[in-house]
Amino acid sequence: MNGISDQELLDLQRQFPSALNYLTSIYIINREYGKVGNSRLASRLKVSKPAANQAMGRLKKLGLTEQVPYESIRLTPEGRRFAEAVLIRHYLIEHLLISKLEYPWEKSDEEAQRLQASLSEDFTEYLYNFFGQPKTCPHGNPFPGTDGEEELVRAKRLMEAPVESDLKLIRITEEGESQDGLLPYCHKMNLYPGKKLFLVKKDEEAVTVMMDETEILIPRDIAAYLCYRQL
Predict the structure, then answer these.
(1) Which one of 29, 30, 154, 189 is at 20 to 30 Å from 52 when CA atoms are compared?
(2) What are the residues whose beta carbons fall under 8 Å from the beta carbon of 105, sequence distance 6 or more?
(3) In angstroms, rounded to a whole number, what is the distance separating the alpha carbons of residues 84 and 58?
(4) 3-class DSSP assignment, residue 197
(5) How far apart (Å, rounded) are the C-alpha atoms in residues 227 and 231?
(6) How far is CA 159 from CA 40, 200, 203, 206, in A?
(7) pLDDT tens digit string along 20-59?
(8) Residue 167 phi/psi, 5° resolution?
(9) Which of 172, 1, 167 lies closest to 87, judged by CA?
(10) Looking at the DSSP assignment, which residues form a beta bridge with residue 66?
(11) E-assigned strands of 52-195?
(12) pLDDT tens-digit profile of 80-131?
């Protein structure tokens, strides 16, 4: 596992309280799209573009990011080390909340966001082994560096699937998790990773699938964040 000491986390939060949220967001966007623009970053974090630009300046001074003007934001090796360590903590908290505390699946991402920086290095390692060294979070997003990470990240979105095909839902993207109402909708419709679907039809507004003998209409702005594997 990627190790970040408790003191390192504490020191960074003292210097820049929002640093970890920025670093993990940059990591996630880059993993998903291969590049990170200031506008997309600001949108994900729900901050203004000037606020994101100011944050990039602070992270650059801390040696955690770099960016040539008008080009993609990049994490330095040190910035990536922090991002991966915090993302692992985030995923493990989700497993703890859902599997052992029976916390609502659709609320776990938001709660994990609040708690992710508070896990100690020892407890992180304990949880990782306790849950059998998981490869994904409960929403299907891969732990950094695990086998199958590339396949999951590159998996096609549901709205791209061919009509009249058998599919398996394998991931709800991190970006999708941050969309208001998306996880509650998936929970309401039982759209969890591992579910088998048959794509009936699709149009400009929605994708229609059959799941467990029930027809479900999935709006395209939700289907855009659901990833599948064809069976």
Answers:
(1) 154
(2) 98, 138, 183, 187, 192
(3) 20
(4) strand
(5) 13
(6) 21, 12, 9, 8
(7) 999 999 999 999 999 998 899 998 898 999 999 999 999 9
(8) -130, 165
(9) 1
(10) 74
(11) 65-66, 74-75, 165-172
(12) 999 999 999 999 999 999 999 999 999 999 999 999 988 999 999 999 999 9
In order of 19, 119, 132, 150, the CA distances from 10 in angstroms are: 11, 11, 28, 31
> If you search the block for the tokens 């702005």, which residue do you land on?
221
CA dist 154 to 149, 173, 199, Å? 9, 11, 20
pTM: 0.91
Pairing of strands 65-66, 165-172: unpaired
DSSP helix/strand/coil, 142: strand
Whole-number Cα distances in Å, 19 to 16, 53, 73, 230:
5, 13, 14, 38
The span from the CA of 200 to the CA of 212, in Å, is: 13
In this predicted model, what pLDDT tens digit does every residue of 134-190 receive, in sequence order?
999 999 999 999 988 999 999 999 999 999 999 999 999 999 998 889 999 999 999
Degrees (nearest 5) of the Cα angle 179, 183, 188? 140
Residue 171: strand pairing partners: 227
At residue 60, the 3 state secondary structure works out as: helix
Neighbour-count burial for 80-105, b at 16+ CB within 10 Å, e otherwise = bbbbbbbbbbbbbbbbbbbeeeebeb
Tokens 């929605």 map to which residue?
Answer: 206
